[in-house]
Amino acid sequence: MKERIYERERTYLSPYAQRSEETKGRLKPESPCSMRTDFQRDRDRIIYSKAFLRLKNKTQVFFAPDGDHYMSRLTHTLDVSQIARSLARCLDLNEDLCEAIALGHDLGHTPFGHVGERVLDAISSCGFRHYEQSLRVVDKLEKDGKGLNLTYEVRSGILNHTPAGKPETLEAEVVRYADLIAYINHDIEDAIRAGFLKKEQLPARPIALLGQTTSARINAAILDIYRESYGKPYVKTSAEMGEALVELREFMFCNVYEQANKLIQESAERMLGALYTYFAGRPEELPPLYHSMREESGVPRVVCDYLSSMSDRYAVNLFKRLFVPREGVV
Questions:
Q1: HSE-up of 236 (CA within 13 Å, CB side)?
Q2: Which of 180, 275, 174, 268 is nearest to 225 (CA)?
Q3: Is the pTM of this model over 0.85?
């Protein structure tokens, strides 16, 4: 089965695609699977990881929203994966590699979304960036400290999925675009649902180019990238589409993200700050996984490891248990 996949990739993928049989390999050598390519194995390892499961209870934009249809960090991840796979198919790139990178790109995200990331970066002496933490999750923290032992291409794609990153494969570049397309479009839906926005407030120029609905905007962006990039050694948008996406992103930051962040900034700072101080002073109370890492990585890093792994609900409940007086407890 795997050889048939290799043959299809040799025949049908773009000459600029990353072929599965040409991977640079894993951090630690291991016996190959007889059925799946290395990128398919990476995808499966990520899906069945504990960090991936926790994404369902982590904030995307709105913390503890009153409704069942808001994006979580997990649904955002699945959205990025779907868009990345669509782009990979139309550009004849490696869909399995795109999917694996997309599913792993936010594994290191904190509770409370980007607010949590900023809080940890500010209070920890080692700093904190979610894309670096995502790589640390797959390299060191999963499977009780053994890591997932992913391929070089997936690890590099996870690390470089942000606008400031430097993707080494076209598949990683695809995921970077898919992330942008996903969050600015579905976050519009959530913002309107939450009452932060009205449709008529959306900036006219990018909406005229992209479309009035989420599906229209996603389709327009994918089609534009296809027209600009098919058969080329790069992945990019047209100048006009790039400007529209940037304008829409800036609009969302000014009118939604910063406003939503203000609602939980103080609470997130209080909770994560108190938890960080508590465990930095009592590292022996960290879960056993982090005890063996303290000497190698240092207490600030392993405290960040623990706090960033938490779901929103877990962080709130732990804060209550440690700092909120309970009735009948002296």
A1: 8
A2: 174
A3: yes
Q: Is 105 helix (H, G, I), strand (E, B) or coil?
A: coil
Cβ distance 242 to 176 under 8 Å? Answer: no
- pLDDT given for residue 267 in this prediction: 86
Locate all alpha helices (DSSP H) within 194-330, ordered by sequence: 204-210, 214-229, 239-252, 258-281, 288-291, 294-297, 299-309, 312-323
Q: Using CA atoms, how far apart are residues 142 and 137, in angstroms rounded to an integer?
A: 6
Rounded CA-CA distance 111/272 in Å is 9
CATH topology of domain 2-14+38-323: Hypothetical protein af1432 (1.10.3210)
| Selection from 324, 330, 312, 314 nearest residue 65 by Cα | 312
Nearest to 154 by CA among 88, 85, 100: 100
pLDDT at residue 156, rounded to an integer: 98
SS3 285: helix
The answer to whether residues 275 and 305 touch, using CB atoms and an 8 Å cutoff, is no
The neighbouring-strand residues paired with 151 are 26
Beta bridge partners of 26: 151
Rounded to whole angstroms, what are the CA distances from 325 to 314, 316, 319? Answer: 18, 14, 11
For the chain, list residues with pLDDT below 50. Answer: 65
Is there a contact between 59 and 272 (Cβ–Cβ < 8 Å)? no
321 vs 271: CA distance, rounded Å:
12
Number of neighbouring beta carbons within 10 Å of residue 196: 20
Long-range contacts of 240-247 (CB under 8 A, 24+ apart): 240/209, 241/209, 241/210, 243/206, 244/205, 244/206, 244/209, 244/210, 245/180, 245/181, 245/184, 245/206, 245/221, 247/203, 247/205, 247/206
